[in-house]
């Protein structure tokens, strides 16, 4: 027997230096030649026992190749998997011996079986491995009709039993992923069994055969072929059938494929694996929808708004009718809506956005920046949505420097992800820490960019700070915020490195930290808090061995001592009212102005004015992005400034909004009743878990009021609920600063009691805190 291209350990002809295409073409040709040679040899064995001579294959018998040989993908270390199919021939045992013994004598590994058509069909219905093999079986020799009958029967059974078989296949796949990990993020991945590996593509083809989902597209096919070529080169180099790409084999395998080095090999395989894994996520989402309990009747497809320009349809997020593709914030806003709803983006929607939607140009408008922060603030749910945008090529268009870290391996046993995935994981982890800092938006963006310098030579903290400065300006951040972001990236290792390597009792240790953060005067305390939170998010995204209770305690203690050394820490005073607005309210009784997203109210002060006005905005489906309220007791006047945007769709008519606000001021509008009726009519779909709310009482932050600091996930009517809770405790809001940063509300309320004094009784303060927390939950 001659197997010129098939013997394990032989080498294909060397590809021209640097020619990846030539090297891969040689591997493809080698597999094709080996398949043809094996097919001819096996057909000859079945015919007479002597290759090339003797009678033809007996009637009622067929030899099938399954597995990699059946798919024409047999690599040098691959096994032969053969089925001898017959119609009940008494002499089939002798026929089997004519094939099996020569194969064994050749040294090839063989998995074999002899079945009648009925037996093969029954085995396929009870054994998943047999079913998957027969779904891709290929005739090598023998009766065509027999093979066609088996294929038709196996496919019919597979489709008839799809609900049972696909549930079983999903469970098997999850077990395999748990055992072998995710190929894209492993330093020594299993090319076949890991998530995103070759086995996943075979499974996807089997699911497609059930007609539940579409077959893998060309991108998945190309990714599969790349991994197959890597596996082929690995088998040729090692002379073994092992599919784990261990470190010592990576450089020679890279050379065999014409790649520059082992890092390029890992980046290439990671990209292919992520393409496969992402397609698999969408496929399994389809399967889950198929396996879900069916609803009675033929109900129309339900569309439910989940954000401005985005609706849920059939378990996915799609563009709303009339979505403005020229809006530069649309892509990120739709992505954020999907993440917060815990739903995937529909592939057709992503393709449309990638082809036709406008993207923000530097400097980004505030709406686009807020949408980015909102996406990151969704926590772990943002990871899949980010991956979807990345697969569509949108991330590198939004953040060009992302290309340098995309799929970049980290040859460090502590790191479990590529650089880009680590950054996204860190940002997702930082979402749980946003209640601990005054600027959650800078924490999330800083977490996303903290290792961006690893795409450049030299110290990644230093080079990353330069990149972060440029990206901060690109995102349209104010200059002072850009400096804070630059400091976060430059010193993101400062607290953990110092806390674990220096004596905390040495004054020089704290001085090291305070000197570093002094690069942004006036923001030092804020930077300390951001660095402490970033240290946690970074370590937890690195891996389980990168963080411990001792390290967490040391970092927290160092941050506490550094903060204590710095002066300041009180909240800024409220904005002063504009004299013209106060005069307008004083001499005209009340005034309401609606100008785009800006709503201004000047009216005689009264308890509950803030939250009642916020309730009117909620009635008109407006989300409060910022609010400022200032009372002037000497005039008996209050001025409210809101910036409010629609939850989705077009904004309300200014005249209708102004009319309702005037009815409120005249005590002729039942805000609570209308909001309650609206809430009862809305079917709420659970979203993704978010960090719990936090309410802090700061008694000494103001000389004339007690300050309530509220951090919570933003949602429609939030300001209404918080204000109502404060009012129910018998307190009034004298001034307020309300801001929405991404998906988080960061609100400060200056409250007084009925006499206008700052409440200080512990029972009163505890009561109002608990009432606000209850309203937020």
Structure in words:
Helix 3 links the parallel strand 2 and strand 3. This protein is of the alpha+beta class and 777 residues long. The chain is elongated and about 110 Å long. It starts with 19 loop residues before the first helix and ends with a helix. 52% of the residues lie in helices and 13% in strands. Among the domains are: 141 residues, Beta Polymerase, domain 2; 125 residues, Nucleotidyltransferases  domain 2 (Four Helix Bundle (Hemerythrin (Met), subunit A), Up-down Bundle), CATH 1.20.120.330; 197 residues, no CATH class. The chain has 31 helices and 15 strands.
What are the main properties of this structure?
777 residues; alpha+beta; Beta Polymerase, domain 2; Four Helix Bundle (Hemerythrin (Met), subunit A); 8-stranded antiparallel sheet; 4-stranded mixed sheet; 31 helices; 52% helix
**Share of residues in strands:** 5-15%
Distance between the termini: 75 Å
User: What would you report as the Rg, rounded to the nearest angstrom?
Assistant: 33 Å
Sheet of most strands:
8 strands, antiparallel
**Strands in their spatial order, largest beta sheet:** 8-9-11-10-14-15-13-12
- Can you give the mean pLDDT? 86
Give the class from helix and strand content and strand pairing. Answer: alpha+beta
Give the overall shape, derived from the CA principal axes: elongated
Give the % helix: 40-55%
**Count of DSSP-assigned helices:** 31
The total of beta strands comes to 15
Unreliable sequence segments: 1-17, 49-53, 568-588
């Amino acid at each position: 027997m001659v197997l010129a291209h098939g013997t394990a350990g032989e080498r294909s002809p060397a590809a021209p230096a640097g020619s990846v295409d030539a090297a891969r073409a040689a591997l493809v040709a080698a597999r094709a030649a080996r398949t043809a040679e094996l097919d001819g040899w096996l057909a000859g064995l079945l015919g007479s026992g002597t290759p090339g001579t003797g009678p033809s294959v007996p009637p009622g018998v067929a030899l099938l190749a399954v597995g990699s040989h059946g798919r024409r993908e047999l690599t040098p270390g691959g096994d032969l998997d053969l089925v001898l199919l017959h119609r009940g021939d008494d002499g089939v045992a002798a026929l089997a011996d004519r094939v099996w013994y020569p194969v064994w004598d050749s040294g090839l590994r063989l998995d074999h079986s002899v079945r009648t058509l009925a037996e093969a069909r029954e085995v396929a219905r009870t054994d998943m491995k047999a079913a998957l093999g027969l779904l891709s079986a290929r005739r090598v020799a023998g009766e065509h009709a027999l093979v066609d009958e088996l294929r038709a029967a196996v496919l019919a059974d597979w489709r008839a039993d799809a609900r049972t078989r696909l549930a079983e296949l999903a469970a098997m796949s999850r077990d395999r992923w748990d055992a072998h990990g995710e190929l894209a993020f492993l330093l020594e991945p299993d090319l076949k069994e890991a998530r995103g590996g070759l086995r996943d593509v075979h499974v996807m083809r089997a699911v497609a055969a059930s007609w539940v989902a579409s077959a893998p597209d060309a991108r998945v096919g190309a990714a599969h072929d790349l991994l197959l070529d890597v596996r082929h080169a690995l088998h040729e180099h090692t002379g073994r059938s092992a599919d784990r790409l261990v470190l010592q084999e990576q450089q020679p395998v890279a050379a065999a494929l014409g790649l520059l080095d082992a890092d390029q090999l890992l980046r290439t395989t990671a990209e292919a694996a992520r393409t496969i894994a992402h397609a698999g996520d969408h496929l399994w989402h389809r399967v889950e929808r198929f396996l879900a309990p069916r609803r009675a009747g033929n109900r129309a497809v339900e569309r439910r708004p989940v954000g401005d320009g985005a609706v849920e349809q059939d378990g996915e997020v799609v563009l709303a009718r009339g979505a403005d593709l020229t809006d530069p914030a649309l892509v990120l806003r739709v992505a954020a809506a999907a993440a917060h709803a815990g739903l995937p983006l529909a592939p057709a929607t992503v393709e449309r956005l990638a082809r036709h939607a406008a993207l923000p140009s530097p400097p980004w408008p505030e709406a686009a920046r807020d949408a980015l922060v909102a996406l990151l603030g969704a926590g772990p749910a943002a990871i899949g949505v980010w991956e979807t945008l990345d697969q569509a090529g949108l991330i590198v268009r939004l953040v060009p420097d992302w290309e340098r870290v995309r799929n970049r391996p980290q040859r460090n046993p502590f790191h479990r992800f590529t650089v880009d995935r680590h950054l996204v994981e860190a940002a997702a982890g930082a979402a749980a820490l946003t209640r601990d800092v005054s600027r959650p938006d800078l924490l999330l963006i800083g977490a996303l960019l903290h290792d961006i310098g690893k795409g450049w030579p030299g110290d990644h903290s230093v080079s990353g700070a330069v990149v972060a400065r440029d990206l901060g300006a690109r995102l349209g951040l104010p200059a002072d915020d850009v400096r804070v972001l630059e400091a976060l990236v430059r010193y993101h290792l400062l607290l953990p490195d110092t806390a674990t390597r220096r004596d905390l009792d040495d004054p020089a240790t704290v001085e090291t930290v305070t000197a570093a953060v002094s690069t942004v005067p006036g923001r030092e305390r804020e930077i300390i808090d951001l660095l402490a939170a970033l240290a946690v998010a970074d370590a937890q995204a690195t891996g389980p061995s990168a963080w411990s209770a001792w390290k967490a305690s040391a970092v927290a203690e160092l941050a506490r001592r550094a903060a204590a050394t710095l002066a300041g820490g009180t909240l800024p005073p409220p904005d002063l009212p504009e004299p013209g607005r106060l005069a307008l309210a004083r001499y005209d009784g009340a005034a309401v102005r609606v100008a785009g997203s800006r709503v201004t109210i000047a009216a005689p002060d009264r308890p509950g004015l803030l939250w009642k006005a916020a309730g009117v905005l909620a009635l008109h489906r407006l989300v409060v992005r910022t609010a400022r309220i200032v009372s002037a007791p000497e005039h008996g006047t209050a001025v409210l400034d809101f910036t409010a945007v629609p939850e989705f769709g077009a904004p309300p008519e200014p005249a209708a909004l102004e009319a309702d606000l005037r009815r409120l001021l005249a005590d002729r509008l039942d805000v609570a009743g209308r909001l309650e009726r609206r809430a009862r009519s809305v079917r709420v779909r659970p979203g993704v878990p978010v960090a719990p709310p936090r309410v802090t009482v700061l008694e000494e932050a103001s000389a004339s009021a007690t300050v309530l600091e509220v951090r919570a996930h933003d949602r429609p009517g939030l300001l209404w609920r918080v204000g109502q809770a404060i009012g129910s405790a018998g307190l009034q809001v004298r001034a307020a600063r309300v801001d929405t940063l991404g998906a988080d509300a960061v609100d400060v309320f200056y409250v007084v009691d009925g006499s206008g004094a700052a409440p200080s009784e512990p029972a009163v303060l505890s009561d109002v805190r608990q009432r606000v927390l209850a309203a937020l939950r």
